[in-house]
Amino acid sequence: MIIAEQKPLEEIRGLIGEAEKVLVVGCGTCVTVCFAGGEKEAGILATSLRMASKLEGQPKEVTHTTVQRQCEWEYIDPLRDQIAQADAVLSIGCGIGVQALAERFPEAIVLPGLNTTFLGLPVEQGIWEERCAACGSCILGLTGGICPIARCAKQLLNGPCGGSQNGVCEINPDTPCAWQLIYDRLKAQGRLHLLMEIQPAKDWSTSRDGGPRKITREDLRLQAEQSE
Amino acid sequence: MSVQASPPLHIVAFCCHYCAYAAADLAGVLRLQYPATARIVEIPCAGRLDALEVLHTFEHGADGVMVAGCLEGDCHFQSGNLNAKRRVDFIRGLLEQIGLEPERLEMFNLSSAMARRFAEIVEQMASQIQALGPSPLRKQARSQPETIMESHTP
What we know:
Chain A is of the alpha/beta class. Chain A contains nine helices and seven strands; from the N terminus they run E-H-E-H-H-E-H-H-E-H-E-E-E-H-H-H. Chain A has two domains: 117 residues, Rossmann fold; 71 residues, no CATH class.
């Protein structure tokens, strides 16, 4: 899922500026699960903003709502009236949610309340770790299900490097060496032969190097069906 | 009543059913005196403490909030009081960002038999809030119409 964390309240208040009517919009999917932008967090942020603005002597009218998914038109369309009444919309969805609101309601001032951080999972409650870099060309089949693109600091395809010490990456003692993990798992599975093949330089055109990405599935498009 | 400010202070005490709430009950049976500024809210466990409810309490004009859970190691649900302790720390951080003194929120631990301790912690909290003075939000919270609007779009 997409992992995010809330911006400091001071930064959010700076973004809101002079807007008097603020609508905080939470999202019920990824950012709810990582406790950054769900219904509870929307309520906490709204009440925090109301109190902070009152203490400053310029009380703002801050309301909040949460949609199931901020990244789909059908879920955000019902917000049209609420957004029309707001001077500013503070999205605490991921960056996709912020942009979906801004794109669907181009007249509205849509602001981000979160820093969208990475694609990952909760390794335990309260700790999230990155697992996928969305590079567009998955090699997990060769690496024992451990991604060296997301989890190796150098994104090596033929690791480990000399910075791997006792199974730990040199960049941070809390970061395990992805290639040590890959080696250990393939060894346990009796598949070390997978590492004997040298991987060529990665084609990064499927990742960010190829510019903004887009997937089109003609079999799923409703407009294509209508045009036939 | 040893602490009686003018205007009177408003302290909300979130009390665990298994310890502080029972201790408050026992304090009543024992006719122990403690400041009448504390309004008790029973919760099934200190671990049920909700950051949003605490913030709403402050928003609606409470001068202080105290959370009272079981002694560490004695939680009826094993670790609810420890969860509450971490949550209180988190909420105090929020209060600081909002601009309220974090000292307006405190957590205490006691058992259901500690009626005198209950009276003491209410006294202590009342003194602490007395020193801080009324919440700067209180006057505004009482004089302005309700502006909170909540909605949920499933």
